[in-house]
């Protein structure tokens, strides 16, 4: 079970508070999208959930456990970044297998999981290539595959499509939605792209200046934005 609660979650850098008292309840297997302008605290929030950023205040509860002080490697979480972060000297296969090797999985298990993920993502024919011989879309599939083989309870994705061209973004939106339906994971996805948010999310969290403005389904946000900022951001008529 990977329900996630953020209770009055805060992040400060010295005197500068960049995430203010965020309260959010995310259901197991939900697809949540955080949207908002650049600098509003989306990545910081995601990085606190991943354990990559120290929490300054409040509580982070995953699957019923308070995890504020649990190190990143001990959280059942995988993160996919905008810039792929693949190992350039390793083949696609090795890139996908590496995290499982670190966890001492057997060769058979690793091979089965890599092959399974590669098939789902349609990258089986690329397994022996190095990242530099791949297109942007192919690299992003490998990054997804690398996260998938670990079967994480929580998938965190930080603007995974923003380096891709518009056509490929459309294809990958559908792929990620399909992946979510197929896996048993909770997805938290950061974007500043309204179309991604409106088409992919179960619920959208609209943020501004480190605060949550509104949390609701795409339809409800569109129909009943609570203020002009949300209306403008979601693209509802004003
Ligand atoms: P977003 O992902 O929504 O674009 P971020 O979460 O990356 O925003 O950043 C939120 C705010 O925190 C920004 O104002 C950013 O400049 C600031 N910030 C991020 N990381 C640091 C840091 N290491 N030190 C100081 N300020 C930071
Ligand atoms: Mg960001």
UniProtKB/TrEMBL annotation:
Primary localization class, coarse: membrane
GO biological process: carbohydrate transport
Organism phylogeny: Bacteria, Pseudomonadati, Pseudomonadota, Alphaproteobacteria, Hyphomicrobiales
Keyword Transmembrane helix: no
Swiss-Prot/TrEMBL keywords: ATP-binding, Nucleotide-binding, Transport
Span covered, complete protein: 1 to 238 of 369
Membrane topology: Peripheral membrane protein
Keyword match Protein biosynthesis: no
Listed GO CC annotations: ATP-binding cassette (ABC) transporter complex, substrate-binding subunit-containing
Residue ranges annotated for the ABC transporter domain, each copy included: 4-234
Cellular localisation: Cell inner membrane
UniProt protein name: ABC transporter ATP-binding protein
One MF annotation (Gene Ontology) recorded for this entry: ATP binding
Protein family per UniProt: Belongs to the ABC transporter superfamily.
């Amino acid at each position: 079970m990977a329900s996630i609660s953020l209770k009055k979650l805060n992040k400060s850098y010295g005197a500068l508070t960049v995430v203010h008292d965020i309260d959010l309840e995310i259901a197991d297997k939900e697809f949540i999208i955080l949207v908002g302008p650049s600098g509003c605290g989306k990545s910081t929030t995601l990085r606190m959930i991943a354990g990559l950023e120290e929490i300054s205040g409040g509580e982070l509860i995953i699957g019923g456990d308070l995890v504020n002080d649990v190190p990143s490697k001990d959280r059942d979480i995988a993160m996919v970044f905008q810039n792929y972060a693949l190992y350039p000297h390793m083949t696609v296969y090795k890139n996908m297998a590496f995290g499982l090797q670190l966890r001492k999985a057997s060769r058979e298990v690793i091979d089965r999981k890599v092959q399974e993920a590669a098939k789902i993502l349609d990258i089986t024919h690329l397994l022996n290539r190095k990242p530099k011989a791949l297109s942007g879309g192919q690299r992003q599939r490998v990054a997804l595959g690398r996260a998938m083989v670990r079967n994480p309870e929580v998938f965190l994705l930080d603007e995974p499509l923003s380096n891709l061209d518009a056509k490929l973004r459309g294809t990958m939106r559908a792929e990620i939605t399909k992946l979510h339906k197929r896996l048993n994971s909770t997805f938290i996805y950061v974007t500043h792209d309204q179309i991604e948010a409106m088409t992919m999310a179960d619920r959208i969290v609209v943020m501004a200046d480190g605060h949550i403005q509104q949390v609701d389904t795409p339809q409800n946000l569109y129909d009943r934005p609570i203020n002009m900022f949300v209306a403008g951001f979601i693209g509802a008529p004003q």
